[in-house]
């Protein structure tokens, strides 16, 4: 992504903050995996959104209207010895030259410098409650300034939550963001297609997962979240990530997997028969979920309520369950009593962006908000007939189906970013050729 994209975001945020304010945004801490092994570092999304800076131990500070520079980046100093072990660092010079900071200081000096930057600011924009340790440091810096008020220094008197401004910005994707998200969705869609091509009875779930990893890495991507590769009844477990079972002839395979490219996620689910042919029961369930997904996607357009796709999906799923004889009574009664819930217990979508369950409010003043161009949502209805359910027609037990696409709201309606992954029954069966 171009440097100008990050500059534009900082300018936009600072215009909303106004003068007399300071924003403090730390990146994510490094986390231990086991003993002295760390997880691969992933910057905090808010921090990266504003900085484009992917090193750990960094804090972004914005002070609109500050004469000696509005954008200050605290980051690690250059250190040839450490860099020999852990990789290159931008250092203060790099922060200014390559990342557009007006000024940069060593992260180790932040306790000495930040209180001075807060002097004269009335409002501190900061996200409380994510990192308690950092919360304490921010409060400490403010107290430090307050101690100096007798010397005529004005201390900030207001903490304002940064998310309100920043997450509304992140919710509406720019042209550059849509391009990256489209690319991520296309790569994931190609991986889902590949999974259909290679899947054979007797393979292990992790062998299918390996196909996804191979494609992701080919495009310098990584899994946006742990891949869910669930054969048969494992497909009924919503967050199944063991991926270590054998794929049996006659079972379905549910795969929920998406790549992250340049810190933007994709999130796609496809369900298909391990042997390439749907059984009559599998097909019946699958066609209901597909019809529900199509009905939900048709609701994605500017001005429609966020909840409209969910309502449309629930309606089609419930009618389908009635038609299969798995629910009794009228459609209205079943909807009223939410009797579909044992088979459909999650919502139909979520915002998608830098985080797979992305930021942005779903309600405004306790009402579902309206869809607007630039929002990206998943649409992911499903039906799950878990073996833990009692009193359900045996023929359906162990069938778990979810179909998930990534959908951009456009001025005229929507664009399905993940279109390249086959989902019609005949398309899947033709691709897999029966095996
Ligand atoms: N993969 C997580 C979700 O579908 O929400
Ligand atoms: Mn998913
Ligand atoms: Mn999802």
- Named at the architecture level, the CATH assignment of the largest domain is Alpha-Beta Complex
Give a list of the ligands: glycine, manganese (II) ion
Largest sheet entry: 6 strands, mixed
Quaternary structure: single chain
**What does the average pLDDT come to?**
97
Q: List how many beta strands DSSP finds.
A: 21
How many helical stretches?
13
Regions with little confidence, pLDDT below 50 for 5+ residues:
none
Distance between the termini: 43 Å
Specify the overall morphology.
elongated
Number of domains: 2
Strand order of the largest sheet: 6-5-4-1-7-8
Work out the helicity level. 25-40%
Structure report:
A six-stranded mixed β-sheet has the order 6-5-4-1-7-8, sandwiched between helices. Strands 9-12-13 form a three-stranded antiparallel β-sheet. The protein contains 13 helices and 21 strands. The chain has two domains: 168 residues, 3-Layer(aba) Sandwich (Creatine Amidinohydrolase, Chain A, domain 1); 261 residues, Creatinase/methionine aminopeptidase superfamily (Creatine Amidinohydrolase, Alpha-Beta Complex), CATH 3.90.230. It is elongated and about 80 Å long. It has 435 residues and is an alpha+beta fold. The site of one manganese (II) ion has 5 residues, from loops.
């Amino acid at each position: 992504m171009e440097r100008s994209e990050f500059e534009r975001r900082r300018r936009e945020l600072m215009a909303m903050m106004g003068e007399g304010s300071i924003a403090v945004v730390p990146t994510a801490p490094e986390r231990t995996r086991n003993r002295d092994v760390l997880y691969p570092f992933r910057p905090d999304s808010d921090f990266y959104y504003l900085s484009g800076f992917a090193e750990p131990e960094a804090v972004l500070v914005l002070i609109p209207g500050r004469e000696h520079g509005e954008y200050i980046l605290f980051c690690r100093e250059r250190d040839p010895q450490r860099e020999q072990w852990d990789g290159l660092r931008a250092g203060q010079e790099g922060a200014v030259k390559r990342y557009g900071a007006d000024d940069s200081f060593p992260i180790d000096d932040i306790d000495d410098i930040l209180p001075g930057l807060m002097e004269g600011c009335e409002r501190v924009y900061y996200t409380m409650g994510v990192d308690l340790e950092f919360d304490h440091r921010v409060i400490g810096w403010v107290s430090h300034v307050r101690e100096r008020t007798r010397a005529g220094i004005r201390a900030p008197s207001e903490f304002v939550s940064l998310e309100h401004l920043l997450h509304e910005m992140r919710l509406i994707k720019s042209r550059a963001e849509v391009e990256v998200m489209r690319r991520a969705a296309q790569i994931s869609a190609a991986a889902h297609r590949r999974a259909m091509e290679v899947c054979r009875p007797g393979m292990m779930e992790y062998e299918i997962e390996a196909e996804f990893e191979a494609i992701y890495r080919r495009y310098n991507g990584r899994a946006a979240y742990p891949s869910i590769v669930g054969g048969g009844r494992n497909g009924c477990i919503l967050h199944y990530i063991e991926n270590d079972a054998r794929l049996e002839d006659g079972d379905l395979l549910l795969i929920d997997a998406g790549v992250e490219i340049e810190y933007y996620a994709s999130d796609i689910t496809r369900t298909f028969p391990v042997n390439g042919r749907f059984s009559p029961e599998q097909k019946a369930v699958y066609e209901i979920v597909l019809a529900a997904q199509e009905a939900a996607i048709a609701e994605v357009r500017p001005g429609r309520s966020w909840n409209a796709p969910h309502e449309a999906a629930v309606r089609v799923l419930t009618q389908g369950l009635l038609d299969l004889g798995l629910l009794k009574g009228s459609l209205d009664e079943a909807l009223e009593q939410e009797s579909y819930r044992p088979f459909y217990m999650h919502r139909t979508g979520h915002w998608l962006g830098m985080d797979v369950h992305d930021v942005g409010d779903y309600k405004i003043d306790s009402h579902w908000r309206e869809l607007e161009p630039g929002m990206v949502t998943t649409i992911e209805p499903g039906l799950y007939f878990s073996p833990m359910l009692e009193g359900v027609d045996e023929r359906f037990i162990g069938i778990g189906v979810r179909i998930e696409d990534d959908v951009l709201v456009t001025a005229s309606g929507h664009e399905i970013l993940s279109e390249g992954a086959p989902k019609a029954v005949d398309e899947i069966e033709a691709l897999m050729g029966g095996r």
